[in-house]
Amino acid sequence: MSGVDEEDYAKLPLSTRLTHKIWKVRLGAYEECKTQFSRAFEPTDSCFGLWTSNPDLWKNMLMDGNVAAQEAAVAAYMEFIKYASPDYVSKSIAFAIPAISEKCLMSSRAGTKVNSLEALQLVIEVGIVDPVVETLVASFGARLPKLVAANVHALSTLVESFGTKIIRPETIVPVLPKLFGHADKNVRKETVGLTVNLYRWVGVRLKNAIASDLKPVQMKELEAQFAALPEEKPTQKRLLRSQQAESKAVEAQPVPENQGLSASPVEDQSEQEDEYDLVEEVDVFSKIPPTLESALSSVKWKERKEALEDFLPVVSQPKIKDANFSDLVQMLAHRIVKDANVIVVTTAAKCLDSLAKGLHSFFHPYVSITINALLERSKERKASVIEALSAAMDSAFAASNLDALADEIAQFASHKNPQVRTECCHFLSRCLSKTTVLPSKSTVDVIASACVPGVNDTFEPVRNAAAETLGILMKLVGERHIAQYTDSLDDIRKAKVKSYFETATVSVKPRSSRPRPVASSANRNPATVRRPEQRSTSATANKPSLAKNTVLKSKSVSSPTPASPARRVSAERSSSSPAAAAKKKNAFEEGPLLPRPTTRPTLRSSKNHLAMRSLARGGSSQKGLLNETVLHLKKMDLEDSEPTPAKQTKVAPQQSTINVSEKMNALNDFAAERSTLLAQIQKEREEKSLLQRQVSELKREVASLKEELSNANMQQESRQTIARPLGRDGYSVPTSLSSFQRDNRNLDSFHQGLARSRLMLSNDPATRSQFTFNRSSSFAFQQPESPKRVMSRPPSMNLSSDWSRAMDLTAKLKEKIEQMKQTDLRHQSLI
């Protein structure tokens, strides 16, 4: 195929190229499918959509007549099984497995055979076992011995890899005697291998089941094979996906504390949040100097520096009360971007760092302006300035997340200053290492697309920083998700990215194999829920940290101590019967009789409450009661994943029923709304297609009108050209006619002269008769056809006859002129 043809084929839809008559086009389509499957971000990605609606395409692909295209099709199907959803794989089984059994296992290419066996094993790993085994067993009755031997070998490989716990022998054993009696020696040889693999798992029961149907020679050969087998029990070489998930869950179990391993970054972050909750918040907003804005606008850098240095201790608080700090953040960001003095820039960055740490999650509204200003000023090369800017960026990122900031940070990866590009990549690397949540697909695309050009940058620090970012991102989301971005890199740069990938460390927790229960809206983000409670209590109490968690307080606010509820609980425990104790199922009932909290307390809130109550009150009896309550709360939080309804109120079951009914009604409403939206979308698609057809028809009409207009213009030009024909001497007809008129005027003047001469020579008869003859002969042509009539004729008349008539008239005129000249000469001689 030529280059033009290949380009045209590449523009065809994928579904068309998959069934194209040219095998090279099909080969390219199969390879494209393989690449798309391997780079799919999710099992339900859009690249699998074609195969869910048309699973029969696999049959045509796997039974391709060209061996090269068939090998590419088998490789594509392997990637499909690996990364597609199990539901999508199950839809393809009815078409793919018979095609593999009939054509691929007996292919002349070794790669096709190996990939076909691997594809069958991958299907078994998904959990689809019976359709595969039944298809292979059904092919044992084929007429072609090569086909039978290939399928027997495939089934033997499956038994060897998965064992008889997965590949049930009940379907295989009844057909073994028929295979032993096959006329082809290769079939009998593969049958012996299948029987030996079954014997390793089943044992003597297999020999007893087939001994009566085999020949003594065959039985003797089998016994020799059985005797050579090892004595240890076989192990399953390949696991199902469900078994793989269980093994990963076992490996991911927490290590006992006595092994001296360090805590994970997530646990460290949890401890830091606990310490933050215990600290009393400070109202920094009221302590901002009123002259700070004017001092920061001063033309003297020392005044700006002194103002920031005086303000830094004020804002350096471990916990800052939330307020509107927009103006303050904008002033500091402006100093960071515009100030020429690096000391002022460093101090302003430290102020933002302290403010972000003190506000914690309440710094979220100011993260964007802070990150932009810090990255813009990161063009400085001084180490102290870069250190202060980086620390402020890290503190600001702690109040937000990577999905919200990825677009803004990635813009600086293409900055004109190479130092800014370097620091941008370093900041992205720190964010990827510290994030505890996997980034979304769009975020991964933004970061990878921004860093790939940096790997080829002309500035070496940019290349190293970009390669490090890609390596950490690869560690975070997996190699195959980043492969589509690194394909354009050369081998040296790929090796550099891979080296950073091997040494990278991330803080994301591994995903659990079991589905996690859906958390309530109050527990989904503890940081954002807990802090507003602090703000509401700080207005009425001097120490907000002591009044933060009020879960274990009694209903009576006026009661000074909870001693009476404690005594009531102890009395109830002493007087309760075993039957009444058996009825208790809620962990809250094992402690004091307390009102039901609005949200189920977590382990962290229990720790905080214990610390606060132990600081506020003393007494060994109260401490023991609190410790016992906290232990029960911990047990409930660790073991019970669902919120437990309180047993103190009788309205709780009714409220639960009402919530369930409300949820069902909401789900029904959502389903109806979804169906309406889908119908609306379908209608809009139909209208769009109709409009597109109308637009195409209008375009065709416009093209036809343009063509007609050009034809009309050409006809008009041709008519005008015909209306101005050229004469024999190169002059047009109007020019010839004008010269003819001029000659007529000359003739008129000449005739007047002749008339005067006639008066003078009237006495000479000979001369008069000669003159009369010449005059008559001369005036015979004084009435030519008027040129005006020729010019006034419409263009539709035939101008070729007029033109010839004018030429003839001109020739006759020339002759008469010559005769008149001769006559004039004779007249002068007579005079």
TrEMBL record:
Q: Annotated region Disordered: where?
A: 233-273, 505-606, 777-801
One Pfam entry for this protein is: XMAP215_CLASP_TOG
Give the highest taxon in the source lineage: Eukaryota
Q: Which Gene3D superfamilies match?
A: Leucine-rich Repeat Variant (1.25.10.10)
Coiled-coil region: 667-715
What GO molecular functions are on record for this protein? microtubule binding; microtubule plus end polymerase; microtubule plus-end binding
Sorted alphabetically, which keywords does the UniProt record give? Coiled coil, Cytoplasm, Cytoskeleton
Q: Per the record, where are the segments of Polar residues compositional bias?
A: 535-561
Q: Name one GO biological process term.
A: mitotic spindle elongation
Q: Name one GO cellular component term.
A: TACC/TOG complex
Bias class Low complexity marks the residues at: 506-522, 564-581, 592-604
**Residue ranges of domain TOG in the record:** 2-235, 277-510
Q: Where in the cell is it found?
A: Cytoplasm, Cytoskeleton, Microtubule organizing center, Spindle pole body
SMART domains per UniProt: TOG (SM01349)
The name this protein goes by in its record: TOG Alp14
